[in-house]
Specification:
The structure holds 2 protein chains of 2 kinds. By secondary structure, chain A is mainly α. Helices cover 64% and strands 0% of the residues of chain A. The longest helix of chain A has 37 residues. In chain B, strand 1 and strand 2 form a beta hairpin. Helix content of chain B is 32%, strand content 17%. Chain B is of the alpha+beta class. Chains A and B meet through helix 3, helix 5, helix 8, helix 9 and helix 10 of A and helix 2, helix 3, strand 7 and strand 9 of B.
């Protein structure tokens, strides 16, 4: 990429008022049907946003019940069965209904087409279909959780889930089965959109890193999710046949089935699925860090390809969840080794992000605080994964709170912070209003402090041996559990703050300009909020996505014009 | 030592030392790396903060696109570090997985929501806090001890299985953990180094009272251990029963289940089982098998899966309804204990033992199979 890109005049009409102005996507029809039958990727993104927020609140409430119960060593508020159903509901809702669709289905839907300079997704009708399938799956899953509940943990290990659990296993896994199809549809759509719908000049080397991340994520969604469908279908058959009294043994050793086979199949999806949950967040952070430090990303190629690298190697590490489940010594060696390899691309990203800050012009609005918070918490989450990938230490940490803390640092400290960062970064673009600068900084700091307070003590608990999914625990663990629950309340305060000022921004927020952050991506060159077809004219891309030092947008305009 | 009294959990086994070394090495190395990254972030955030926060203006930042040598460095260095950690971890894991050959075997059977421990001498202990299930399981007999007793500085091998769902037998103070998978035997081992009482947790979620599927391990001196085995002292209110060794109980079951009808040294219709444990045996249709725990187990549960060369598949399957997991362990312990000439002799006129199958086994098609090699 040469350094001599001349600023060019926008290919905008000289006198916009000469044309009848296109209305924003929000004003393009006000009836309920104009939303429910929309094929506009932005409206579909908003439909996802509404229900993601609802499901996050539901999952967060379950988390609150779990944490509240753990302030006493004998269970403060719930009996054992209810506790088991509660943590299962927390896991199922947060993973399948929130984290997996969060950034891909919401931000991916809304921004990938705009960022590549397209009018819409490649398959707009498939897009709205994926939302309906997601809603159907969500309601089946939630119906299963409400009427009778599910007490298997989200991991659904047989033979407990298929023969011994007398809860709603069959409808529960049916819900997950349906949800998977929505994920496949969205993944396919984004993959094809990035391949086929890029604007003139938007080469792979000029693709924003968020799109690279979404590309890698979609690859996983497309290739891994079918395995989940097979796995839960087989489990559903076994559970249903048991319930009907004509047992069919697939995983149940009492009928010559193999319970370890389920674990292999389950993790063959569910380990790549954790990358579905984190790679989009990495993409978001690359966008925010560059914008708020006004720097080119350090090592564009390395950051872009490390997303793909994680996606590919991520398929080969699944059995590291099974080091004490009795896989052979050599299998354990292989999977531990491959897990070490997948840690490298994540490390590369962290180093590149940190270097991006070097000699920047850093400002600390809410999106940047979330992105820096992501960097801090994700680094802890990533580094504490190494003792779990190492065979000798995993024996001790397996299935303890250490694991709980590790994946919450990645999932919550990583993905949820990235999701909130994305929401704050793109909020003005999506709704055309600014939120309170002061309160958003308070809210983001509250959440980061709350996370650290909630999950740091759990590393200690895990190292001292407290197992997962225990409503009863030895009394010496009580102090750290209370600390963890206190952290939850700090987070809750943060989330309520955010919900409040974001809602208020609709009524009292300043009107946002086209490019309030002075960013370079194509999404900042459309109207705010964008018009239904995104661009008045197909944009021509002339340079890479992060030319902050040259102050150039991707179409060659000045980036700092608000 | 200072660490051990503040933030480290008790180290009570040989393995704890090795596992903790790996853990603290990783923690130190990753901690230094992490703090380095954080310091860099902090310094950059302070040194390069925007002085006029909301003004954008022409951005006076240098156009730095990356550095190949830096990328190479922070790809290769972490990789080498990770591979070093991998190697160390694999070495510890290898140690944790493979017990010394001469370690005595203690069998553990997991069941919702208790652990049933069987010592080689026949002593039984049931662990768990789920008092409801005890009364059903022990049928009012006073076997319940509640504490697993182990000798200090002696390696013991733990062979584990489950009657129902997957459990996990974890002892944090020993830094050892193993899943109890129904239908299979898995093994781990301990060499306790410190006298004391330690927690046992079920680490694999197993249903309602998962968190009550816990117990204690009491590590005592070797003399106390012998005394405990001999019933001279107890850890709890139950009766410490010495009702013959596991192998002895297995012998009684061997008779009761009428195994002797065919597995007989005089008129054999099935392989003689003396001294077969851990030896390689030919199979019908080619191939060989090592007669280890899992093979013996399979040959009882599903005898037609692997049939020995020279014999007909006449044996009925003994499912969990006929032989419980605990009884199976006893029978296998008996088979393992059999030395040359120790098989009982069948006498045709002896009455069938109580509980023996009423119908005779189907006659074999060929009777020319001699004593197997």
């Amino acid at each position: 990429m040469s350094t001599t890109i001349e600023p060019r005049v926008h290919e905008q009409p000289e006198h916009p008022e000469a044309h009848p102005a296109h209305v924003s996507y929000l004003q393009d029809g006000y009836s309920i049907w104009s939303w429910l039958f929309t094929v506009d990727h932005k409206r579909i993104g908003i439909l996802y946003l509404v229900f993601l927020t609802l499901f996050f609140a539901v999952g967060g409430t379950f988390a609150g019940l779990v944490r509240l119960n753990l302030i006493s060593p004998h269970g403060a508020i719930l009996d054992n069965d209810t506790y088991n159903k509660t943590f299962t509901a927390h896991g199922v809702v947060m993973l399948f209904l929130f984290l997996i669709p969060s950034i891909p289905a919401m931000m991916g839907n809304f921004f990938v087409p705009i960022m590549v300079g397209a009018k819409d997704m490649a398959f707009p009708k498939l897009n709205i279909a994926s939302w309906y399938v997601w809603m159907l799956g969500s309601f089946v899953a939630i119906w299963a959780l409400i009427t009778g509940g599910l007490d298997t943990g989200w991991t659904l290990y047989p033979p407990y889930s298929s023969r011994f659990s007398h809860t709603n296993v069959v409808p529960g896994v049916f819900g997950v089965f349906i949800l998977g199809f929505s994920s496949i549809m969205t993944g396919l759509n984004i993959l094809v959109t990035i391949h086929r719908m890029r604007a003139p000049g938007m080469t792979w080397g000029r693709l924003p890193l968020f799109c690279w991340a979404m590309y890698a994520t979609s690859l996983i969604q497309l290739l891994a999710t079918p395995v989940l469908a097979i796995t839960v279908a087989l489990l559903g058959i076994e559970a249903a046949s048991n319930a009907l009294g004509t047992p069919i043994g697939i995983f149940d050793p009492a009928m010559d089935g193999d319970p370890i086979l389920f674990q292999h199949m389950f993790w063959f999806y569910s380990h790549p699925a954790v990358y579905i949950m984190i790679i989009p967040g990495m993409g978001v952070v690359s966008e925010i860090l560059t914008c708020f430090s006004r720097k080119n990303i350090f090592g564009y190629t390395a950051v872009a390809w490390s997303s793909v690298g994680i996606a590919v190697i991520g398929f080969l590490v699944w059995a590291h969840h099974m080091f004490v489940a009795g896989i052979s010594y050599y299998a354990a060696l292989l999977f531990s080794f491959l897990t070490m390899l997948v840690a490298v691309p994540s490390a590369i990203k962290v180093f590149n992000w940190t270097s991006t800050l070097y000699r920047g012009q850093i400002s600390f609005q809410a999106p940047m605080i979330f992105a820096l918070g992501f960097l801090v918490l994700f680094t802890i989450g990533g580094l504490t994964g190494i003792p779990l990938a190492t065979l000798g230490s995993d024996i001790h940490f397996h299935d303890t709170y250490y694991v709980v803390a590790h994946f919450h640092f990645v999932m919550v400290g990583g993905m949820v912070l990235a999701y909130l960062g994305a929401l704050h970064y793109w909020w003005p673009k999506m709704f055309g209003v600014m939120y309170s600068d002061f309160w958003s900084r308070i809210g983001s700091i509250l959440i980061i402090v709350g996370y650290i307070l909630t999950f740091m003590p759990q590393f200690w608990l895990g190292y001292h041996g407290m197992p997962r999914r225990y409503p009863n625990y030895p009394p010496e663990f009580q102090f750290l559990n209370i600390m963890s629950t206190a952290g939850y309340t700090v987070q809750l305060a943060g989330f309520l703050t955010i919900a409040t000022y974001l809602t208020l921004s609709f009524f009292t927020g300043k009107k946002a300009g086209t490019n309030p952050w002075g960013a370079t991506g194509l999404e900042w060159e459309t109207a705010t909020p964008p018009i239904t077809h995104n661009f008045e004219h197909t944009p021509r891309v002339v340079c890479g996505p992060y030319e902050y030092s040259l102050n150039l947008t991707q179409t060659g305009g000045r980036a700092d014009v608000r | 030592m200072i660490l051990q009294h503040t933030i480290m959990p008790e180290q009570a086994s040989d393995m704890a030392w090795h596992v903790d070394n790996v853990i603290w090495f990783i923690t130190a190395v990753t901690g230094i790396t992490g703090i380095g990254v954080y310091l860099a972030m902090l310094v950059f955030c302070i040194a390069y903060r925007r002085r006029t926060p909301n003004a954008l203006g022409p951005a006076p930042t240098p156009r730095i696109l990356g550095s190949h040598s830096l990328e190479l460095a922070w790809t290769v260095l972490p990789l080498l570090l990770f591979l070093g950690i991998f190697g160390w971890g694999a070495w510890v894991y290898n140690k944790a997985l493979h017990p010394p050959a001469d370690a005595p075997e203690i069998y553990v059977v997991g069941k919702q929501w208790m652990w049933k421990i069987q010592y080689p001498g026949g002593q039984r202990v049931i662990l768990g806090q789920n008092s409801l299930a005890y009364s059903q399981d022990i049928g009012g007999e006073g076997f319940f001890e509640g504490v697993m007793v182990l000798p200090v500085n002696q390696p013991v091998k733990i062979v584990i299985t489950s009657e129902d769902v997957i459990h996990d037998f974890g002892v944090p103070a020993f830094r050892q953990k193993i899943d109890a998978v129904p239908g299979q035997y898995r093994a781990t081992w301990y060499q306790p180094t410190k006298i004391g009482t330690y927690d046992i947790f079920c680490d694999q979620y197993c249903g309602t009272n998962h968190s009550l599927m816990v117990g204690k391990i009491m590590v005592v001196s070797e003399k106390d251990y012998q005394d405990w085995l001999d019933g001279k002292w107890k850890t709890g209110p139950g009766k410490n029963s010495v009702d013959g060794s596991l192998a002895h109980q297995g012998r009684q079951l061997f008779q009761k289940l009428n195994c002797i009808q065919c597995h007989d040294t005089q008129k054999s219709k099935a392989p003689v089982l003396e001294e077969i444990f851990n030896t390689r045996r030919p199979l019908k249709g080619g191939g060989t098998v090592i007669a280890d725990d899992n093979y013996l187990r399979e040959s009882i549960r599903r005898p037609r899966a692997k049939v020995r060369e020279g014999w007909e598949p006449i044996m009925p399957a003994f499912g969990p309804d006929k032989v419980s997991e605990e009884d199976l362990i006893k029978v296998i312990a008996y088979i393992k204990s059999l030395k040359k000439g120790e098989m009982p002799v069948r006498t045709d006129d002896a009455p069938a033992p109580i509980g023996a199958p009423t119908e005779p086994p189907p006659p074999p098609k060929t009777t020319d199979g001699g004593t197997p090699k």
